[in-house]
Design brief:
single chain; 102 residues; alpha+beta; HIT family, subunit A; two-stranded antiparallel sheet; 2 strands; globular
Length: 102
């Protein structure tokens, strides 16, 4: 998840520079996830407003979700289950290292 420092409900609350920084950080996160997790693709998106699925109203963030061929897309939605091939602490450490090496 990529979050700007400024709390805003949507993209209009960001300056052009802040918006560019947010997208650059999104790209940086995608690249780190690619190096560490080697996914086949990504879902990258923003949910704005309650009806669009925004869990925290007034809070803009970008989801960067790695995807693999044949993964179980419905699992987190229907079963409140996440399929991750390694411990989250180990994965987080690898991602932090990948981001620090940029």
């Amino acid at each position: 998840m990529v979050v700007p420092y400024k709390q805003t409900p949507d993209l209009n609350g960001l300056t052009d520079e802040e918006l560019a920084d947010l997208l650059k950080l999104t790209r940086r996160c995608q690249n780190a996830l690619s190096r560490v997790m080697k996914p086949n693709g990504f879902n990258i998106g923003i949910n704005l407003g309650q009806v669009a699925g925004a869990g925290v109203l007034g809070h803009l963030h970008i989801h960067v979700v790695p995807r693999w061929q044949g993964d179980t897309n419905f699992m987190p939605v229907l079963a409140n289950t996440v399929v991750v091939p390694e411990a989250l602490r180990e994965l987080a450490a690898k991602l932090r290292a990948a981001l620090a090496s940029d």
